[in-house]
Amino acid sequence: MIEIAKTENRIVIAREPGGPDVLEIVTRPVPVPGPGELLIRNVACGVNRPDQIERLGFYPAPPGAPEGLGLEVAGHVAELGAGVSAFAVGDPVCALVAGGGYADFSVAPAGSVLPVPDTVAVADAAGLPETVFTVWTNVFEIGALSRDETFLVHGGTSGIGSTAIQMAKAAGARVIATAGTPDKVTQCKALGADIAINYRDEDFQTVVTEAGGADVILDMVGGAYVQKNINCARMGARIVSIAFLTGSRVEVDLMRVMLKRITLTGSTLRARSLAEKARLAAAVRDTVWPWIAAGKLAPLIDSRFALDDVRSAHERLDSGAHAGKILLDC
């Protein structure tokens, strides 16, 4: 099950900024876990928007991050570093990593590692860490979403969006989601969205306003959506930006922000300290893992590709046609 004797490790690098064709598989020695770390023999890894941005040259890895692309993995513990006692060799785990996730083996800080839930296949658990950590951080900690509030998420069938819909419903919120095709609208509703809006056919600002407005908004679009989010937000709303697919520089009417007492904020995850990520992992294990056990949350898998076919996986990501997570089988 665990190829501990293997001496070479395939990783994926971008030889220069560009499209999927710049991705290359190179071999490196199997990494050795340091104190407080563990080595994971990956079964699968997740493909995420930050990987695309890094490939394009706009998201450099933080100092000390492992070489190569990839921010989340799932597999089995292959080796324990000094001081790690919470896991044993062979345990099925998933982990948030700062880099090097597209690989046969990845090193992860023990604090960023979680056991694979019993109800999720190891190969599918690679679709959990990046999205769950991101949603927990931005929707529940920063956004402070609570039961019976209204939550609006854009890109409802993305990896983040599909996870956010399920987590918000599990927490007892009313959920509104936007998507770009009739099929994706249907998927949003199947995931639990109370209202799903095809933004190509309807103005989401009008629909959300008529539905009473939103208390928490998770935005990955940016651009013109920023002001529209402010316009349809409720009094005291929290708007959290985590990406800006249509632009990060915008002009907004701050008078509306003031009059509605809106909090407009944002965050990133990758560069946070190991201690902060460990704290987030503990919170996720305490609150979100029980939702998975209860059948309230499962990773939505769009497609799978072999690690050797990583360029096709990124072409799928670039197309925007995917619904749910894109995974690489290692």
From TrEMBL:
One of its GO terms (molecular function) is NADPH binding. Gene3D superfamilies: Medium-chain alcohol dehydrogenases, catalytic domain, NAD(P)-binding Rossmann-like Domain. The keyword Phosphoprotein does not apply. It comes from the Bacteria. Coiled coil: none annotated. It holds the Pfam family ADH_zinc_N. Keywords: NADP, Oxidoreductase. The keyword Oxidoreductase applies. InterPro entries: ADH-like_C (IPR013149), ADH-like_N (IPR013154), ER (IPR020843), GroES-like_sf (IPR011032), NAD(P)-bd_dom_sf (IPR036291), Quinone_OxRdtase_PIG3 (IPR014189). CDD domains: p53_inducible_oxidoreductase (cd05276). Residues 18-328 form the Enoyl reductase (ER) domain. This is Putative PIG3 family NAD(P)H quinone oxidoreductase. It comes from Maricaulis maris.
